[in-house]
Design a protein that fits this description.
It contains 25 helices and eight strands. The strands form two sheets. It has a five-stranded mixed sheet with strand order 2-4-5-7-6, covered by helices on one side. Among the domains are: 234-352, Serine Threonine Protein Phosphatase 5, Tetratricopeptide repeat, CATH 1.25.40; 356-438; 441-638, Histidine kinase-like ATPase, C-terminal domain (Heat Shock Protein 90), CATH 3.30.565. It has helices at 2-21, 27-50, 60-71, 75-91, 95-112, 115-131, 135-152, 155-171, 175-192, 195-211, 215-231, 235-251, 255-272, 275-291, 295-312, 315-331, 335-352, 355-403, 408-438, 441-456, 460-480, 488-505, 533-544, 575-578, 583-607, and strands at 486-487, 511-516, 525-527, 552-560, 563-570, 612-617, 628-635, 637-638.
Length: 646
């Protein structure tokens, strides 16, 4: 507690100093400002020292400190006061009142343009949204906090934001994603030697494993978290661990042990007046009695848990308690009551897991993954720069060795090393170009715009199908970008997802057909990834799109001796008509052809075999035909497993 007080005092003095630097200072008002600041700090410290769970959250100390802060225009102190009151209200599960206080704190943070304040406020508000199972809003808040924390390099706020995103993932039943978030948060906490952060993240990892029914792993992390909380004497943390361990013993069907831990948790929660954790304890105790075939005792505790969860707006706990009450009344053969509680549980569950929330979660994660993708490209650029530096050093060393007439063997070794570095640098540059060409921003923009249109038109069926195909396509693209070759069936599968997405954009949709030689339908036949897609995109965007209706697309994958023939044929306007397009559209198409030429050249050099690419208008061969054919010839490659570029 002493350390907390010292930190609070230091922060407040710093805020006060910053405010005084921003307005004209005279000797008299400087003395007054200093006295006011010390008085406000003393009032806040007195509130913290005298506060317990039975105290008034906004006590007289804080009210007096608020009045003085308003008069002296001390925004730093006001933010500190409103945040402190908001946390106290949240810990007692008065979420509406807590939200009002934290919104005041957020307004101060935004008006003062203080990124540290905003990061803190976003995380605090996100916790409240999580506790009332408003997961999309919670995710928005934690994402904003994460972005700001990265900007100001605030590891503590970053850890809290990542932990919050993990908790939302658990609520949305995305348990593997949640584990990854919590492990990242745990790593940051260890680097900061933040024992509280380690306690929170280890317990949350256990929660995810419990949901995955990996009970031994869950129990391991729960007891680790209990050790951390005991180390820092956190009563709230110990209560959470007792509830979690009790839940795990329930799943292990060891109801006696479960009841021991749950009663310990209930005792602490009643003492702390934390209605959120108290409702969880009541519900889990009821579950133990229900498992032991004591429905009457179960109903007593479950009814308390349900009422408390509904009072504080915790949909998740309310859904679980209602479902268990349905089972209890079914055991007593009160089927009407059982049905009523079953319907209530279903209502809560539907409000948590609906299509809108799932779509919002996927959209936010897509933004976050896009940020990670940019970071990966930056890392590649840094590595390429490092290779340039190393290459330059090798050249200098080589020149020095030549001047000094060093032994010929050393010169040869350095030349070999230099060649390898140059080759690696070229490979890195090619990987970057390939990655950017695969993750086509133009296509992603069109796809997300189409989803937006479907949502605005309230066409949830198309939105859901579009998003499902789009996410599968992105997973394929990102996975295949790590390999020089992939099985032909994976390339076809990516094309099918891409074409299904494009069909949803057209009304009426165009038709397509993928034709493969029987010899090609073999998992051992491999192909460079995303080789056909640029020409399929050109055919749709520049051929079929302007056609309006009746569009048809044929993709052929054929075997011709030791060669593979890839053809993309459409019945659109034709490439000759395309010559009349704007310079910008021509440049987009020629870039796709240029990159494909480069890839084929590299493939030809690597395999020592011929490759060929041609694009021509069908009218040139038959004046009655309409459309364009793109044809690629490359050597037929058979491989036992895909060859990774990593």
């Amino acid at each position: 507690m002493d350390k907390v007080i010292v930190i609070l005092v230091a922060c407040a003095i710093l805020f006060s100093c910053k405010e005084q630097q921003q307005r004209p200072i005279t000797l008299s008002n400087a003395i007054v400002a200093s006295e006011d600041s010390l008085m406000i700090e003393q009032l806040i410290v007195q509130s913290i020292e005298t506060y317990d769970n039975n105290s008034q959250t906004f006590d007289n100390y804080l009210k007096e400190a608020e009045d003085m802060s308003i008069k002296s225009n001390s925004t730093g102190h006001l933010f500190q006061i409103y945040t402190l009151v908001g946390q106290r209200l949240r810990n007692k599960s008065y979420y509406s009142e807590a939200m009002m206080m934290l919104q005041k704190a957020l307004q101060i943070a935004e008006e003062s343009k203080n990124k540290q304040f905003r990061t803190n406020a976003y995380n605090q508000i996100g916790v409240i949204y999580r506790r009332i199972d408003e997961n999309p809003q919670a995710l928005d808040m934690h994402m904003k906090a994460l972005q700001l924390a990265e900007e100001i390099n605030d590891s503590l706020s970053l850890s809290k934001a990542i932990n919050g995103m993990g908790n939302v993932s658990i609520a949305m039943e995305r348990y593997h994603s949640a584990i990854e978030y919590f492990r990242r948060g745990l790593l940051i906490s260890k680097q900061m030697d933040n024992v509280l952060g380690m306690a929170i993240n280890t317990n949350n990892i256990g929660e995810a494993f419990l949901k995955l029914n990996q009970l031994d792993s869950a129990m391991h992390y729960y007891f680790r978290s209990l050790d951390y909380n005991t180390q820092i004497n956190s009563r709230v943390g110990q209560s959470i661990c007792y509830n979690s361990i009790g839940s795990a013993y329930i799943e292990k069907q060891q109801n006696g042990l479960a009841l021991d831990y749950l009663l310990k948790a209930l005792e602490i929660n009643l003492e702390l007046e934390d209605r959120m954790l108290t409702s969880v304890s009541y519900t889990q105790i009821g579950k133990t009695y229900l498992n032991d075939q004591f429905p009457n005792q179960a109903i007593i505790y479950l009814d308390k848990g349900l009422k408390m969860a509904m009072e504080i707006g915790s949909k998740y706990t309310a859904e679980e308690a209602a479902a268990l009450l349905s089972e209890a009344y079914e055991q007593k053969q009160y089927y009407n009551r059982s049905l009523d509680y079953y319907k209530l549980a279903t209502t809560f569950k539907d409000s948590i897991l609906n299509e809108k929330n799932i779509f919002h979660m996927a959209s936010i994660e897509a933004k976050y993954n896009n940020t990670l993708q940019k970071l990966q490209i930056d890392e590649l650029n840094k590595e390429a720069l490092l290779q340039k530096t190393l290459l330059s050093k090798q050249r200098s060393l080589l020149a020095t060795l030549i001047i000094l007439a060093v032994v010929l063997i050393i010169i040869v070794v350095l030349i070999i090393i230099q060649g390898r570095l140059r080759s690696r640098f070229k490979n890195l540059r090619f990987q970057q170009r390939l990655l950017r060409s695969q993750m086509n921003p133009h296509f992603i923009f069109n796809a997300l715009s189409a989803i937006q249109v479907f949502i605005l038109e309230n066409d949830m069926d198309k939105s859901s199908r579009f998003l499902a195909h789009f996410s599968k396509l992105m997973r394929h693209v990102l996975r295949s970008s790590n390999y020089e070759f992939i099985p032909i069936n994976e390339e076809v599968e990516m094309l099918q997802y891409y074409l299904k997405i494009q069909q949803l954009r057209f009304s009426p949709p165009f038709s397509y057909e993928i034709i493969q030689s029987d010899e090609i339908k073999n998992n051992k036949v491999v192909i460079p990834p995303m080789l056909i897609q640029p020409f399929v995109e050109n055919a749709i965007e520049h051929g079929l799109k302007a056609l309006g209706e009746g569009g048809n697309l044929i993709i052929r994958i054929l075997k011709n001796g030791n060669d593979m023939i890839l053809e993309v044929e459409d019945n659109g306007l034709g490439i000759d008509y395309h010559d009349q397009l704007s310079q910008r559209e021509k440049k987009h198409e020629s870039m796709a052809i240029k990159i494909t030429h480069e890839r084929l050249d590299i493939l030809s050099k690597d395999t020592k075999k011929r490759t060929h690419l041609e694009v021509f208008d069908k009218k040139r061969k038959d004046p009655f035909e309409r459309g364009t054919i793109a044809r690629i010839v490359l050597p037929l490659t058979i491989q036992e497993s895909p060859k990774s570029t990593l």
